[in-house]
Amino acid sequence: MGQRGPAPTPTRILELRGSNRAGRHAPAEPRAAVELLPPPDWLSDEAKRVYASLGARLVASGLLTGLDAETLACFSMAWADLKTCQEFLGKHGQVYLARARPGPGEKEGVPVGLRPYPHAKIARELRGELIRLGDRLGLSPAARARLFAEPTATPAGGADPLDTYFDPEEAVG
What we know:
Elements: H1 11-17, H2 45-60, H3 69-92, E1 95-99, E2 111-116, H4 118-137, H5 141-146, H6 161-166, H7 168-172
Helix pairs in contact: 2-3, 3-4
């Protein structure tokens, strides 16, 4: 059985809201450094690519710490498995023709109907798992609204590259 009630709000967020009441919360919550650890050796090549690509984007946004490496590894593995299932389903379709056992002297049994490939159910479950893990990593707008990230430093030039990306006049001129 899970913990009851809503998850506690981090102390830093309470302080920013001005609603922190001393003595009611942990005196010092643990904080981990924003970093991307190397992927685990047991990940497939595809999962390692997802781990590196997504991990770099999460570190850049200040949402990934070393403590999140296992969650990112699980997300990457689920993504790679989903890709495998979707490739199979794209090639073979969602269902196959099921046949009864052949009778004496028959090569194959009579068709009894269509059945879904196991890959279809596995892909559906993996999509749900990706959504749950993605929420823990802050991959949806709603999940990001519930997370707090320390602002990352701007590059050495002082200008944020996203400012020129979103301001077309400055990018052209």
